[in-house]
Amino acid sequence: MLSSYAILIFLWLSEALCSTFDYIVVGGGTSGLALAVRLAQSHSVAVVEAGTYYEISYPLAKTPGADVLPVGSDPDATSGADWGPSREALDKWAEAVDDPSYAFDNVLPYYQRSAAFTPPNLARRLANATTLYNSSAFDPAGGPLQVSFTDFVQPFSTWVARGMEGIGLPQSSEYNNGELEGYHYCMSTIRPQDQSRSSSQAAFLPGLLPSNLRLYKNALAKRILFDEDKNAVGVEIDKVGISTTLRATREVVVSAGVFQSPQLLMVSGIGPREHLEQHNIPVISELPGVGQGMQDHPFFGPSYRVAVETLTRLANNPEYLVQEYLRWLKQHEGVLSSPIADFLAWEKIPDDLRTGFSEGTRHNLSLFGDGWPEVEYLSGAGYVGNVSDFYYDQPDDGYEYASILAVLTAPTSQGTVTLASDDTWDLPIIDPNWLETESDQQLAVAAFKRVRQAFASDDMNPVVIGEEYDPGPQVQTDKEILDWIRNNVMTLWHPSRTCRMGTPDDRMAVLDSRARVYGVNRLRVVDASSFPFLPPGHPQATCYMLAEKIADDILLTQQELTRTDL
Ligand SMILES: Cc1cc2nc3c(=O)[nH]c(=O)nc-3n(C[C@H](O)[C@H](O)[C@H](O)COP(=O)(O)OP(=O)(O)OC[C@H]3O[C@@H](n4cnc5c(N)ncnc54)[C@H](O)[C@@H]3O)c2cc1C
Ligand SMILES: *[C@@H]1O[C@H](CO)[C@@H](O)[C@H](O)[C@H]1NC(C)=O
Ligand SMILES: *[C@@H]1O[C@H](CO)[C@@H](O)[C@H](O)[C@H]1NC(C)=O
Ligand SMILES: *[C@@H]1O[C@H](CO)[C@@H](O)[C@H](O)[C@H]1NC(C)=O
Ligand SMILES: *[C@@H]1O[C@H](CO)[C@@H](O)[C@H](O)[C@H]1NC(C)=O
């Protein structure tokens, strides 16, 4: 009798003790896992993740090809990357947050820390897809994230390279040196040995968890808890309907992504006062910038019939998909090892297409500075349309389809994330607000025309079959083009800046340059929402950079505290 009581008490005690950690990280995504694993090298850390090991429940997710297959704009739809920081963007970041540690040369070591680079495998890549690269942009000691070039090059990309030449873009020698201008086959987070996606899960949690790290999966963070002095002391979580409180003796780090980080702050009392009061949430820190100022990279693209194999074949032929999946699994090759968009280019719109820009547009674009490209082009080996669903929307008429996606990388429209209720089970309300400003509209029309010029160039012409398929040559005036873009625009999945960093005198700033939330203590936000603005390159590498940088900051601060304790 006594012994079973003892066991019960022991179990209760160990559970109670185990739910106190040095650090709690909310969100096991790109930034959260990298940060948590670094902190766990010397501290006890809990990761609270609303999802689970999705790469086990959804095996296709391990293939680089899956980066676009299941993710369209269809709201009912469920369920790779490169790094291209620009020197100018990071120097601007340092200026915006008044902290020189963000200048390009100072953050470069943090970009390098997560990444292990493998040069392209020339024996396996297409002979007509040679690419320039510079290994010394990487640190040989970097890792565990794998960065390489996909073995399978989309044949269509070799034609886009010619199209870019045709409209006057230069091949860039490589873009990890902080210059984006020009075209390039891109590096991807692909593990070269088996051509699988090197995600934060695959790279940072490859086997047994570090003993200091406890992962609460299928656990939704409901609220951050504060003591009377506004110190973040814990997180209330909901795991399969059971509410539990986790305690943090040092800090709580929110890495719940661009939509849910501001949501969690707001339901916990941090945000625009009026909005919180509408939902009867007591205000702990009034910060009008929470959920505001969202920036993204909207894209769109006309589609053509082409004379090379593209995603269209894969989408219309389930047997081929299965065959390619097995080929990828066994031989680590084939279409599914391709992230589809394996080729990128950046530029400023050339003078002849700027003549129609208004004064306001010219002014807005001038604010971005010389080294900041206005548009990006991605090779898109498939029909694009309204991007409702890349896979199911491919036409099934025996032709192969392809596009060049035009992306706005100097956008001025800003979106918002607001609460639908005070409960994190309810998704927040997202208003992306793309193409709201005149400068975005005029830039979009010019970018669309550039894509048409590339397809019409002599260099690209041999691969094109017939005239433009979608929207087709009847769409000609700026107004017609803009109308079509409005109905077919999609995000390149780069939303950011909903809990942005800034100086203390900046009313809309949510975080200081060390990612600490203004007005409270021991609380940081580290993910794409923390960016002071969205750089023109793709954000994944910057999420890792920030996680590495803030992990270092936390650990160094801890060491200093320990030293002063002694
Ligand atoms: C389809 C797609 C393709 C992309 N392609 C590229 C690319 O090629 N190159 C590139 O650079 N970038 C790309 N991106 C963008 C890049 O993936 C993101 O910028 C990056 O992953 C954002 O990381 P994060 O840490 O901010 O958030 P996330 O990685 O989204 O992590 C947030 C985590 O928090 C969890 N969470 C949310 N709320 C709660 C809660 N209340 N409690 C507990 N957990 C919670 C979520 O489940 C999630 O795991 C792509 C994105 C998408 C969607
Ligand atoms: C490669 O990168 C290194 C470090 O950034 C630089 O010093 C070197 O000049 C580069 N080499 C070439 C050929 O661009
Ligand atoms: C490059 O080679 C591939 C494979 O032979 C071919 O499909 C593609 O059309 C070629 N590209 C160009 C621009 O010639
Ligand atoms: C998007 O396109 C698909 C077909 O390609 C169509 O079924 C769907 O209705 C379109 N959605 C919108 C919102 O226009
Ligand atoms: C310029 O950008 C600002 C936001 O930064 C926006 O409010 C304004 O409408 C833009 N002007 C034009 C002409 O697009």
Q: Could you explain how this protein is built, in words?
A:
The structure is a single chain. The protein has 566 residues and is α/β, with parallel strands linked by helices. It is built from 15 helices and 23 strands. The chain has helices at 2-18, 30-39, 54-57, 87-96, 104-114, 155-166, 200-204, 257-267, 273-278, 311-316, 318-331, 359-366, 438-456, 478-488, 540-565, and strands at 20-26, 45-48, 115-117, 145-147, 182-185, 190-191, 196-197, 213-216, 219-226, 232-239, 242-254, 270-271, 285-286, 298-300, 303-306, 343-347, 375-380, 400-408, 416-418, 429-431, 464-470, 490-491, 523-525. A hairpin with a 4-residue loop joins strand 6 and strand 7. Residues 77-81 have low confidence and may be disordered. The structure holds flavin-adenine dinucleotide and 2-acetamido-2-deoxy-beta-D-glucopyranose (4 copies). One 2-acetamido-2-deoxy-beta-D-glucopyranose binds at residues 385-386, 388, 393. It comes from Aspergillus mulundensis.
